[in-house]
Design a protein that fits this description.
Shape of chain B: elongated
Strand order of the largest sheet of chain B: 6-7-8-3-9-10
Distance between the termini of chain B: 34 Å
Number of strands of chain B: 19
Structural class of chain A: mainly alpha
Oligomer: heterodimer
CATH architecture of the largest domain in chain B: 3-Layer(aba) Sandwich
Number of helices of chain B: 9
Strand content of chain B: 25-35%
Helix content of chain A: over 70%
Order of helices and strands of chain A: HHHHHHHHHHHHH
Number of domains of chain B: 2
Radius of gyration of chain B: 24 Å
Number of helices of chain A: 13
CATH superfamily of the largest domain in chain B: P-loop containing nucleotide triphosphate hydrolases
Chain lengths: ~290, ~350
Amino acid sequence: MGLKGIEDIADRVIKPSVLRGVTLYTALTAIAGCALFPILWAVSGSLKSAGEVTTPTLFPAHPQWSNYREVFALMPFWRMLFNSVLYAGCVSAGQVFFCSLAGYAFARLRFRGRDTLFVLYLGTLMVPLTVTVIPQFILMRIAGLTDTPWAMIVPGLFGSAFGTYLMRQFFRTLPAELEEAAILDGCSPWQIYWRILLPHAKPAAMALAVLTWVNVWNDFLWPLLMIQRRSIATLTLGLVRMQGEYVARWPVLMAASILILLPLLLLYTVAQRAFIRGIAVTGLGG
Amino acid sequence: MASVTFEQATRCYAGAERPAVDRLDLSVGDGEFMVLVGPSGCGKTTSLRMIAGLESVDAGHIRIGTRDVIDDDPKDRDVAMVFQNYALYPHMTVAQNMGFALKIARIRKLEIQERVSDAAKLLDLMPFLDRKPKDLSGGQRQRVAMGRAIVRRPQVFLMDEPLSNLDAKLRVQTRNQIAGLQRRLGTTTVYVTHDQVEAMTMGDRVAVMRDGVLQQCAAPRELYRNPVNVFVAEFIGSPAMNLMTLPVVDHAVALGDWRVPVPREITDSTGELVVGIRPEHLEINGTGVEMEIDVVEELGADAYLYGRIANADNTFNQQIVARTDGQDPPLRGSRVRLRPQSQHVHFFAADGRRLPFSRGTG
């Protein structure tokens, strides 16, 4: 084959792939830019003065770091951060534990009506929160849990249809022989779950924990209904109440938003690899 | 140690047309190495899993020693299994994998260590005890799976195609190691494979299965010499036995100028017979049926000639394999004459049964 032949092949093989790469990365950069722009705008806004905030510039003329200091002065930030971490942490731990247990049962144990029960459980995902929010409120009131930290923890603690689905999908990917080897080694169903299958489920558990954490962290409606006392309020409540009291202080609100966002970014950075693996393995990725 | 006995053991899967294992009667002696062999879907793995308790027994019984175990939990049957994909626990080290069953049984830590290290020495695994399975080669993983079974000192070893994930050379090496180890430990072993060479070289006895039904159970040499039907005859031996359906004419079957008389009662009932001749029982000389050689497979000591022989209408379309000396085999495309050694010819009825006047004597 002559040099010309090789060039022809190179043209056919390399050129489309280079072109494809350029197109793909241009598109991805554009999408990432669209997703990042509001955050950049918020960062920019948080450093502007009250007068400058409405001007369409990305870089403030004189960055006002004092906006951040003011957030701490205007709301009990550390207390609310502690509350949010406590609620998100407890609910995430509960979700991982109970959803993995239920997922294991639905994926691996054989019992009559298993699949029907699973479909019914999954069907609850179709019911919007707005339909159940009032009955849930009444239940919490009867239980005497409104305006206590329990109101934030208990409803989400015992798992969810989504989490159970995620864990079930993961357990179904593990080879049956692993479980059979454990059965022959003398393990009970609990020991199989706890000692053999759960250690493998770390990526899925991590993905579920992160998703739950973000949900609880960002939740506004439920804490708004449940919590009156400032001492047990979440960051989202703090932010919204600040908005009510200081309507015109957009830069301070932006600064507070950024501060609330930071722990989530940190969590996502730490758990990113496991999170992506979990989503990929369970086949939930888009 | 203990014997294993299947008594009319049957396993039916819901929705299947026929049972996966159909009234299996098989007895594995104390300390015996029994190989279950057959094509995929023949019920060999299901039978093994029935002993382990991983498949339920729908009818009949399975005894380990004198105890009927069909209602016992797998863990109470005192059996250890080596899986095809080894099923090692990826998050545990080699030592933890091997000692896990003992840990679950709450055996003292010191004794676990002792037993794990004994098994590791036996299997040359001492340098790998602290490694995770992902850091081991295929052969090492296979040995860990063996070690996990040995450490438990069970009454019965169950092995489900444990060599199928190894490369050809390692498979031969490990095959000998497993057979040697089993003889040393003297533990009753039921071994499943689809590879008839593995079956013949490892087993004290070999049970050939097909469509859930046991065809024949005998020592390897007996299986080779006296297959009870066409299926066993064809399945055991490599290359496979030549099988030809020949018409019975004047109370005899003929292949070229080679004729064998057939008893009258057989001749009366059927018009044709299946004649089986192993490749090594065809002599190449100046007489007999003419063969046109398509392929010559040279293996060094021997050579196999693949070709066709002429039918009654003189067309060359009956496939045949013959073994010859590897020193100077005939060339591809040439024609030779084959003559069966009469004392080694097998006869089967049209329905596949071996006929009583078969002369296979070795």
